[in-house]
Amino acid sequence: MTLSLIPAPRALVVREGAFELAPETAVHAPRCHAARFLTELLRRATGYALPDASDASDASDASDASDGALRLSLDGPADLGREGYRLDVGAEGVRLRAHTEEGLFRGVQTLRQLLPPEIESPTPVPGPWRIPYVSITDAPRFRWRGVMLDVARHFFDVEAVKRFIDRAVPYKFNVLHLHLTDDQGWRLRIESHPRLTEHGGTSQVGEGPGGHFTQADFAEIVAYAAARHLTVVPEIDLPGHTQAAMASYPHLAPDGVTPELYRGIDVGFSQLAVHKSTTYDFLDAVLSELAPLTPGPYLHLGGDEAHQTVAEDYDAFMTRTIPLATRHGKTAVMWQEAAAVTALPEGTHLQYWRPTREPVPPALADAASRGLPLIMSPADRAYLDMKYDDTTALGLSWAGTLGVRQSYDWDPETLVPGARVAGIESPLWTETLTTPDDLDHMLYPRLPGLAEVAWSPAPKDWSAYVPRLRAHTLRWDAAGITSYHRSPELEED
Ligand code: TNX
Fold first, then answer.
1. Residue 473 in domain
2. Fewest CB within 10 angstroms: 34, 99, 280, 456, which?
3. Per residue in 224-280, pLDDT tens?
4. Average pLDDT of span 300-326
5. Average pLDDT for 37-56
6. Start and end of every Glycoside hydrolase family 20 catalytic domain (predicted)?
7. Does ligand 1 lie within 6 Å of residue 267's CB atom?
8. Are 176 and 310 found together in one domain?
C-alpha cells in the first residue's frame, strides 16, 4: 500500500490491512474545531451518520479504544510541540492524539489524506471508506507556514477568501496573510476614515468596480480562518503602495494634491507625506481599528518598494510607525527592505521576497545576524503569481517562470546563512488574476510542494514526490476543483 501524504510526515509506519468506516462508527472527541471539521467532512462525502459519542465516554481515556471508533484526544505527547500529533490506525479503530486542539486539526488533515480521494466530494458518494493501518508521528519543521492573498490589485470577496483558505487547509498551512491595501485599492473599512473604502475601494486593476470588506466581513474571515487554525496577518502597505489612500485623503499626499485612482500594474511610484504629523495621526487611527479586529499577534506594515522615499525618510517613517503597531501588543512584520531600519524592535519579522539569484542585501544579513526572524518568500521559489512556463496565460514573469519542481526543490535555511528562519510564505499577487478559478490555477499544483518545504524534514526528493502529487490531482477532481494547472512536470518520474 503506497500512501500519498503531503506534506510528508516526520515518521510513518504502514501495516497490512485497513480499517473501514461504517455508518455507525462512533466519533469520540473533545468539542473542538478539529472534531467538527472531521465529522462534517466525513458525513458530507460518505452520507454516514457517524454518531457523536463524545458525551458517552471520556474522550481523553486512551485505554479502551478497542471498539472500532474514531477517537480524538488531547493526551498526545507534549514534546511534539503545539502542532504535533500521533495517529494510529488499526483493527481497533482510529486514534488521533495531540497536545493541543491545533495539533488535532493538523492530524485530521492527515487522516483526510489516508481516505480515498472521493472523501473530498461535496455530496455523498459510495464507499468503501478504508483507512490503511498506520502509525504516524508528526510535527512541523517551521512554525510559520503561510499563504498570502492580494485582495488589493483585484478584490476577492469573503466567499473567495474562504475558498482560498480551503485550498491551504489540507496542506497544513497556519498563516493567512491578507494584502489589504495597495495603489489600486483600499479593501478594509476604517470607520474613522470612511473614504478609504467609499472612494479608495472603488478601483482595481483594469475596469472592474473594486470592492472592500466591512469590518463584519473581516471578522467573518478571521473566524473562518481561526476555525481552521490559521492566523490572519493583515497588511497595510506603507509608505509606498498608497495611491488609493492618498486619492481618498489628499492630506496624506506629499504635495497635498489629490491623485487619481490607479488601475495599472506599476509599482514604486507612490509615497505618503512622511514629514507631516497628520500622516502619523492617520496611521494611528487605522492601526487602532485594525489591531482589535485582529486576534493574531502580527500586523504587517509592508515597507516594500518605497522607491520615492529616500533612505533617511524611510528610516524615520518606519521608526515612527512601528510603535503605532507594537503599542497594541502586536509584533510588526515587514518586507525585507525594512531590514535597513536602524531600531527594529526585537522579534520584528522580516519577509524575504527577492529572487534567490540576487545577493542577500547586507542590511538583511545583518538583521538576521541580530536574530530577527525571517519569513522566506523568495519570488523565484514561492511567488505563486509567477507563470509556470512561457505558455501560462495568467501571471507575471519578472522573477522568471516558476515550475512545479522549482517551487519544491529548495531549502529555506540555506538562503541567509545563520538566520533564524520562522518559516515560509507563498504570496499570490493578483495583478493578472480576476476569478477564484484563476487563483486555483496558480495555486495548484505548486502549493502542496511549498507546504512540504514548510512542514516536512529536509532533504526532499522530487522523484519520490511526483507520484504523491499526481495522486492529489484525484482529490482536486473529487472536490470539483477544475482549473488547476495540468503540468507536464507531473509525468516526470
Ligand atoms: C513585487 S513582493 C511586489 C508586489 C507585486 C509583486 C508581483 C513585494 C513585496 N512587492 O507589489 O505585486 O512583485 O509579483
1. no
2. 280
3. 999 999 999 999 999 999 999 999 999 999 998 999 999 999 999 999 999 999 999
4. 97
5. 92
6. 142-457
7. yes
8. yes
335 lines ligand 1 (CB under 6 A): yes
Q: H helices of 305-398, where?
A: 311-326, 362-369, 379-382
Number of helical (H) and strand (E) elements in the chain, helices listed first: 14, 16
Please state the domain count of the chain: 2
Instruction: Tell me how many degrees the CA angle 260-309-269 measures, rounded to the nearest 5.
Output: 30
> What CATH number has the domain bearing residue 277?
3.20.20.80
Residues 263 and 370 in one domain: yes
**Integer CA distances (angstroms), 473 to 9, 45, 278, 422, 480, in order:** 19, 17, 52, 30, 11
Could you tell me if the CB of 353 is within 6 A of ligand 1?
yes
CA of 286 from ligand 1 middle (Å) equals: 23
DSSP letter at 484 equals S
Q: State the distance from the centre of ligand 1 to the C-alpha of 429, rounded, in angstroms.
A: 7
The answer to whether 134 and 88 are in contact (CB under 8 A) is: yes
Q: Whose CA is nearest to atom 9 of ligand 1?
A: 304
The answer to whether the CB of 285 is under 6 A from ligand 1 is no
Residue 62's pLDDT is what?
Answer: 47
380 lines ligand 1 (CB under 6 A): no
86 and 202 in one domain?
A: no
Give phi and psi for 232, each to the nearest 5. -85, 130
Is 305 a residue of the active site?
Answer: yes
The parent domain of residue 105 ranges over: 11-138
How many Å separate Cα 198 from the centre of its chain?
Answer: 28
The ipTM value here is 0.93
Place of cell 521576497: 353
- Please identify which of the residues 305, 346, 413, 491 carries the catalytic annotation: 305
